[in-house]
Design goal:
six-stranded mixed sheet; single chain; Heat Shock Protein 90; alpha+beta; about 375 residues
Length: about 375
């Protein structure tokens, strides 16, 4: 007895199976045709799914890139802040010897005057005692004039008239010297105070005067400084310490340029003029010198970091690069210069007045 369906039934099943195979092949061909057609619903669906996957993948990549850029930006801001603080500390270090000298000079003549006053006071006390002795003898009616003559001779020998003339002058000098020490120390403390993160309304004239005082040892042997401040300059939002650093760099550069032209002051002193002016919605600070000027070749690279024409120990090439960063990037201002080689340079710094408050200015010469 055989297994399986009868021969006729088998033929029917084979025919049915062949028909189903043909149907499947037709369906497969249709589906493949749909995929092959660019605008078919299936092709569009597949394209959309693929596009969505690409968008998601690209979005993840962009998020990762954004996070990486944010971290890099934070690191750059931190590095810039550290560089500025390092530059300020370097400036303070370079100024320290000069500040010590500036303090030592008035302290020395205060000490000299104190020694003179001590000696003068001892002589005055001795003269006073003798005067009192003579006065007592006169009071009791002594007819002897010898003590009076001796007193006159003693006062003349001690130079009492000269002492009386010099003592007030010594006291005035001592007071002036102590006031100068107080001013220098106060300016140094203010200049070296840690920077604040937010802008604060700042008296630019006070900041400029503080910086001029701190830098005095850099310019006093080679130049005289004249300030001319406009009377309508308001307090403006500013990072005071960083603004001080800009002014310091420009004044020190001006002093060095004058020293180059005058051979360290041996050919006479030059002049540095610091002026302020209200120009529209900005304050313009001009620092002009009659120094050696800037050659065209140097002018093209003057703001490049670490570029300097100064000898080793005189500069690192960071000053003007940082000045530009502080003015342009941190204060949305501008800085430019005009220079004539061999005749001098003028730097123009402009800061916006945003949310400023009105104050007055002044004109003065500093020597």
């Amino acid at each position: 007895m055989g297994l399986g369906p009868p021969p006729d039934r088998r033929l029917d099943l084979e025919a049915e199976l062949a028909a189903r195979d043909k149907t499947i092949r037709v369906l497969i061909a249709r589906v493949e045709g749909q995929f092959a057609r660019p605008h078919s619903a299936i092709a569009v669906l597949e394209h959309n799914i693929s596009l969505e996957q690409k968008v998601q993948r690209r979005t993840r990549e962009l998020e990762q890139s954004h996070e990486s850029l944010s971290n890099t930006l934070s690191e750059l801001k931190l590095a810039q802040a550290q560089l500025l603080e390092a530059n300020k500390l370097e400036s303070i270090g370079q100024l320290a010897a000069g500040v010590a000298h500036e303090i030592n000079t008035p302290v020395q003549y205060v000490a000299d005057n104190a020694g003179f006053l001590k000696e003068a006071f001892e002589k005055l006390i001795a003269a006073l005692n003798e005067t009192l002795s003579v006065a007592r003898q006169v009071a009791v009616g002594s007819p002897d004039a010898a003590p009076l003559r001796a007193l006159d001779e003693r006062l003349a020998a001690e130079g009492l008239a000269w002492i009386c003339e010099q003592v007030p002058r010594a006291i005035d000098q001592s007071i002036e010297g102590l006031e100068r020490v107080t001013t220098i120390v106060s300016a140094m403390k203010e200049f070296s105070h840690p920077s604040v993160a937010e802008k604060q309304l700042t008296d630019l004239h006070d900041a400029i005067n503080t910086t001029i005082t701190v830098a005095r040892h850099e310019w006093k042997y080679v130049a005289e400084i004249q300030t001319r401040f406009a009377t309508d300059i308001p307090h403006i939002p500013c990072l005071r310490n960083e603004f001080n650093q800009v002014i310091l760099n420009l004044i020190v550069n001006a002093a060095h340029a004058i020293a180059e032209r005058t051979h360290g002051g041996s050919d006479g002193k030059g002049r540095i003029a610091v002026t302020t002016e209200l120009v529209g919605e900005e304050v313009e600070i001009r620092i002009q010198d009659d120094g050696a000027g800037i050659s065209p070749a140097v002018a093209a690279r003057i703001y490049d970091p670490f570029f300097t024409t100064k000898p080793v120990g005189k500069g690192t090439g960071q000053g003007l690069a940082i000045a530009r960063s502080v003015v342009v990037d941190k204060h949305s201002g501008s800085i430019r210069f005009e220079s004539e080689f061999g005749k001098g340079t003028c730097f123009f710094v402009r800061l916006p007045l945003t949310n400023a408050t009105t104050v007055l200015g002044s004109t003065s010469a500093i020597t």
